[in-house]
What we know:
The protein has 257 residues and is α+β, with helices and mostly antiparallel strands. It has 3 domains: 1-78 and 89-136, no CATH class; 138-193, no CATH class; 199-252. Helices cover 42% and strands 16% of the residues. The chain has helices at 39-50, 129-132, 139-150, 155-169, 178-187, 189-193, 199-230, 235-252; strands at 5-6, 16-17, 24-25, 32-35, 54-59, 65-73, 100-106, 112-119. The strands form 2 sheets. A 6-stranded mixed sheet has the order 1-4-8-7-6-5, covered by helices on one side. A two-stranded antiparallel sheet has the order 2-3. Helix 7 packs across helix 8. The N and C termini lie far apart (71 Å).
Amino acid sequence: MSNTIFNLSNVQNALVDSPLEGRKILPLDTIVAIKASEWQQCLERIQSLCSTKWIKKRKLCGKDYIFGETRKCHRAGRYTPKRQIRLAQKDSKLCKCEAILQIKQHINNPEVVMLCMTKDHTNHIPGDNSDIRTLPLTSEVIRIIKGQLKEGKSCRNVRISVLEQIEEWGVDIRKPSYEDIYNIMRKMKDVLYRFHSDENNTTTEIRNQIWRRVYIFLFLRYSNFYEMHLGKLKGSSLVLLSSRIMSDMNSMTQPLA
């Protein structure tokens, strides 16, 4: 065990080189001491650098522990289909990986959390191209996607922006697909599309916003036509133009007040 207590700024130094070029892994049977107040953020950073995901398996009980748990690789276990396998069915991410990570915080040393990988990965190589597809999106990627969706960006523009940022990071993490972004957008429907606590008022607000956009579209369309044939728009022409637009809008359907 090293005497170094790692934090978010230097936790990458606790890792060793993977058999894959440019990849990192946790050293086997080596205790990594991490500052207690940052251990969760450090674990997320380790997962990103090692292209893996540790999921809870069970808690560790003992009088010496403030906190303790055992985690397994996200590819542990085996999926057994109950129905006949379909030709187009995606491969399962489960491959019976036996990797185990122990996390402990001792009463006599509460300022430090100990991480130790006691069993190595089996039946797959973390960071391999075929392995990255099985990873969930990182919390940082999800945070960026949500932020850009709140700004009103389209799924296409969000994906392009996120892919560019991932390239700048230089880490091997799963890149979001359009389906990922769409699913996040669906979960955010209350944030993106609920303008009032009452559903009817929200529907009214959405429809009114649509009508405002329709009005602007028709105004620009007709103003170009009027200027082309009648010259620069003046007071009476603007009144005529507005009346024409409202007449067309009413012929489509009656907007809500």
